[in-house]
Amino acid sequence: MNKTKMRYILDEIAKMFPDAHCELNHRNPFELTIAVLLSAQCTDETVNRVTATLFEKYNKPQDYLNVPLEELENDIRRIGLFRNKAANIQKLSRILIDKYEGEVPASHEGLTELPGVGRKTANVVMSNAFDVPAIAVDTHVERVSKRLAVAKPDDSVLEVEKKLMKLVPREEWTLTHHRLIFFGRYHCKAQSPKCEICPLLDICPEGKRRMKKAPVTKRGGAVS
15, 91, 99, 138: which one is catalytic? Predict the structure, then answer.
């Protein structure tokens, strides 16, 4: 993949999703950190339903420590891996109070030291809460990057991130992250990508393979 082809991809996706943005509801860096932590292996839609009441009950780190773990678990029970996530939220809250005066650290290193906060979460918080350019590689970004041959099929998440960082201008990292997510979530879906109407089909190896296999006709009707 070269920068010219990447530019074409970015421009086409920009036409499709000009208003792409973070879909996790939050009012501050702390709420965003909690929301992204909860979103692992869970849809943003489900997270937003849970945090609608969660963020009314808990406003700051101390609030999460003022309740028994079982109560917090019950509050996020609709979220996958809720027990593990509840434990991480309390551990994270304790560290924020003890080490950062209750504030979310505005550094990648500080964020990734927090329980339940990996590189992806840290990138989301840095870019959306602190306006530091970053590309967070979630399942959508990874899938789209590999289908479009921006990255190799066996590349790690970190390798995908590094390749995108080289190909995309730094000032566009955050917006590209959002647009790739929208493209993967609403167009280039995991199970049923819309290859037949995709403006990138001509340069997409995966799309071309899928279209060759696509419609076979049986008894006069199209069967996919």
Answer: 138
120 is catalytic: yes
pTM: 0.87
- What is the per-residue pLDDT across 91-107, written as a single tens digit (0 to 9) for each? 999 999 999 999 999 99
75, 85, 120, 163: which one is catalytic?
120
- Maximum CA extent, the chain: 70
Q: Is 42 assigned to a binding site? A: no
Closest CA to 13 of 214, 172, 212, 206: 172
188 known member of a binding site: yes
Is CATH 2.40.50.100 the right assignment for the domain spanning 1-191?
Answer: no
**What pLDDT digit, counting tens, does each position of 170-181 carry?**
999 999 999 999
Read off φ and ψ for residue 4, nearest 5 degrees.
Answer: -65, -45
Please give the Cα distance from 125 to 132 (Å, whole number): 9
